[in-house]
């Protein structure tokens, strides 16, 4: 039996523990998707109108650097989400996101979700807390990698 | 009175602890750019690999010596040391040709305490060259695979080109170990993970109350890894860290490696987090 979007979200760590009515409200903005390896979920500069709740497969977050080519600065695996630019104006992607493997994900419409959060600040606050945690972890990861821990002399 | 002549005899044939024993470089293996593994055998007597996590003071004659963890034992019994070329001494060691002589003192220090983890899950977290001191532990775990629950080996490196012991990690997987690798940065062709090694921990810790963590890498990496393990529910007393400080004498005499009330060379390099964790938060140490 095919699982509903709300069921898929309930099983995902980012949405785990949300009330059923909240999940149903969020699921109303979602659709089930599948992408082949190499497919770009989004490209830098394009309009950020959705984000992806990864269920299977790996997504590479890339930045193109002149003279160095594309660099993978992060990867997103099952249990994580891809994309936060839908949250903030100007709603434009600042990176590329490419499927490294076949990916199954729930795509959530950013404008739809923002409207629902504006109408239900309690739900909006709950979602913001969860996204803030994801963003906080990514910032910390980026900060520590900026230290080039494994490359400095004396480092093990 | 019977024991005294024996003690006198032993002192006549065993070198003093500060005297290096000459070792021959049997093999040199290039691991990654700037990192080599030396296979060493003593000119006299048998090799002394020590326990997993212990280290030797390895010296290039006329240059100096450095504390280098034992990274394994070769099939011929040779002691393996994995060295990164970062300073004058390690530069001389990394460039030592096959057949040359190096000085070795040791093994020194306290290694990994494996006994307390028997029967439970194990999470090994390595950052960069920190995989080298953990390799003997991982080998010991894989040889006693049935004595443990889930064994996870989490490896972080600067880039795919800097990943150590790749062929061996495949063998660990074949022996039933869960091996997960991540790098800080990669070109587009890399299909593995990119991100901090701490991000692998949540997926590796399944039974926190019965999990032991073994961690080795740069001190900052170990600090955050220990936090992530504790955040996943692992008890501080079940987290072991291998500290790296400026070790000179190796036997707790010179004081260069002092960390609070401890000498890392004598009391470590492996410490329980409940002991060393608070010291790692003290900026002056």
Oligomeric form: heterodimer
Major sheet of chain B: size, sense and barrel closure? Answer: 7 strands, mixed
Kindly estimate the percentage of residues of chain B that lie in beta strands according to DSSP: 25-35%
Report the order of strands and helices of chain B: HEEEEEHEEHEHEEEHEHEEEHEH
DSSP E strands of chain A, number? 8
Q: Tell me the distance between the termini of chain A.
A: 50 Å
Question: Would you tell me the structural class of the helices and strands of chain B?
Answer: alpha/beta
Give the ordered list of helices and strands of chain A.
Answer: HHEEEEEEEEHH
Average pLDDT reading of chain A: 92
Described by the principal axes of the CA atoms, the overall outline of chain B is globular
Strand segment count of chain B? 16
Instruction: Work out the helicity level of chain A.
Output: 25-40%
CA distance, first residue to last residue of chain B: 47 Å
Mean pLDDT of chain B: 91
Which regions of chain B contain 5 or more consecutive residues with pLDDT less than 50? none
Radius of gyration of chain A (Å): 17 Å
User: How many helical elements of chain B?
Assistant: 8
